[in-house]
Amino acid sequence: MTEAMPLILFISVFGLLLLGYPVAFTLGGVSLFFGLATFGLDFFNLLPLRIWGRITNVVLIAVPLFVYMGVMLEKSGLAEELLETMALLFGKLRGGLAISVVVVGALLAASTGIVGATVVTMGLLSLPTMLKRNYSPELATGTISASGTLGQIIPPSIVLVLLGSILNVDIGSMFIGAVVPGLMLVILYIIYIAIMAIFKPESCPAMPNEELEAFHKEGMYKKIITAFLMPFALILAVLGSIFAGIASPTEAAAVGAFFATVLTALKRRLNLSTLKAVMKETTYLTCMVFILLVGATAFGLVFRGIGGDEYIRELVINANLSKGMFTFLVMFVVFIAGFFIDFIEITFILVPVVAPIFEHFGVNLLWLGILFAVNLQTSFLTPPFGFSLFYLKGVAPPEVTTMHIYKGIIPYIIIQLIVLATVAFWPESVLWLPNIISY
Question: How many CA atoms lie within 13 A of 305 on its CB side?
């Protein structure tokens, strides 16, 4: 019975999650029950110290700061300007509007990193325009949903901060390592749209000449400079200071939060109601992450205390699984779990459990962290619980059905899996840039 305790704990947690109980309280509540049953009242001496140690980790201060930066930029109207300018720049090309959505998604990912805000903004601004220009609903919705999720892998990303904290990997290295996989996704998205423009030109027509001519006449270069200068200044301030070794990720997050506030003020959108809305949303999102962290810490303490990591290690060794097979199995479980639960929940439940086994196999934890991040990105697109799909459906016109969105995201999920496989079989795609910058 004692040997089976880790398995019973794991099954109990997943069973209650499938029944719809809140993740944080399920993790915490089940862990308290098992901890009390196993260790007695002494468990309550251990738990507060473990939670305090995790919560006081200075790296995690970056989470509320990056959230604040993203929410503040959403209120600044920066995304609207970027989308309008990019759409007109690529307007002559078939599929140009879709390519502009991908490029803006990448820029917003590098300056905000919040998926929900990006998808909703691009859904409200781009989707009606794309449909009006006779884009197929599948291509339009798929492109917007997938582009919005780039904030998961392109730094600064909250999931990279959380994974780095759990795996005990330097956050700056995580950010640098994620650059190449993030760019690979952007390039493959654009290649897919270009292929659609060649073989299905009716699904992504070019913009009318009248609109393009009007854009050229109304101070095109001034609009381009205005639209691109601010986000690039922010990206340079945040990522540039990390990559150059001037600031830690936590310090850079503070710089980003300050710059986002300044940019919103320069756009004349900073007022008391904006500030209250940003503070409220930041507090809500931060509390959600940290209460999950508390539950996950309790779960991790009990799971290790009852020998869960040893149990799984022996299970893997007895099954004669190679390092490659174990990696494939874990990545498959993460991908399937993404159909049903949120990326933060997967990060806090699964990653701490399997990390010691990967260490036993001698796996590079930086590469492993980016592999998890790319895989977790798919959880935003996989039905039935892909959050990106919910966000887009909430702001889509009535003629766009759920089936349009589901069909539209399939090619982009395949692209994400191709990048996942590339990162898995070619670790240098992750490790190359950090190695160059570190020397």
Answer: 21
